[in-house]
Amino acid sequence: MTDLSFSIQTVAECFDEALEFRNRNRPVARDPEYYRWRYLERPCAVPAYTVWVREGEQLLGAATVAPQDFCVNGKRSCLGLVGDISVAPDARGKGVGSALLRETRTALPEGVNDVLVLPNAEAEGPLRNAGWTMLSALQRRVKLIRPRAGAGLPAALAQRTVAMLGAAGQAAVKALGPGATIRLDLDPGDWLDELWAATPGKGFAAAVRDARFVRWRFALHPLERYRIAGIFRGDVPVGYLALHTEDRVCFIDDFLLLDGRLLWVLADAAARAGGERSGLEAVQLRLNGGSLSRIAGLTGFMRRQDTQSIMLGGKLSAAGSPAQDWFFTAGDKDV
Question: Which range, of 55-64, 225-234, 256-265, 321-330, averages the lowest pLDDT?
Fold first, then answer.
């Protein structure tokens, strides 16, 4: 198909049409409450928008993008997170999807500096063909809390490994100085703004994790119930985590630490929160590469083979922020 036209509308302008088209052309439908939370209630000054592709009057595809505030080397940047990409069945395999991906990458509304996507594996090839580039990848890491036979290590060896890491963790926490404490089930308030304000500027790139974002992303999520915990040295916040427990695994969905060694405390906080349900066996988190990933290995978070790609449209130069300087967690994929 060559006679394609494109247009952009804010989600507020086309909410019902965008949701209906998405649900008609995707295997899993979303209800209005979730769609409203994801695109209309996200705390960003730039509104969410939908990129439409048509042939004549016929609607063939749509990509909906949620702008989000990032900090890149000490400067605020608004990056659009591509969420729902939908193509009508009779338009698939005819270049419509590729054209839509190119348009979404290059046609940025005012205030949007670039676009990001955390795609499913089958979408990576089409995205590359449309000019998207690989920025980084999330690793899945698992820390055994209660090892058992068949968990990947012989039971006796696993028990010794956990004991050794526990002793090393106690030494690391002690080295952080007195007063490193964990507070569970906190309201996402001023302490998170204080924590975010203390994060480094130069050489650091991440989605803004202030109180407004954490409240929207986790406290107000319409489908999942998360717990918010803080790590404090005295009364000063030095870390935060959002988590939930499922099938004997405690998932750390998001976190922010001022000192990488606090990963020891992070694992302990998750184990404490998840351990309120009997039989907790492991703590899992996702993070991209760099020094924090190396510390995760030392703290007993074993790397699994599966990864989640993170791709960039390309208008925001990554020259000063190589992949290891970007910080992503599972929470950056808001599904």
Answer: 321-330
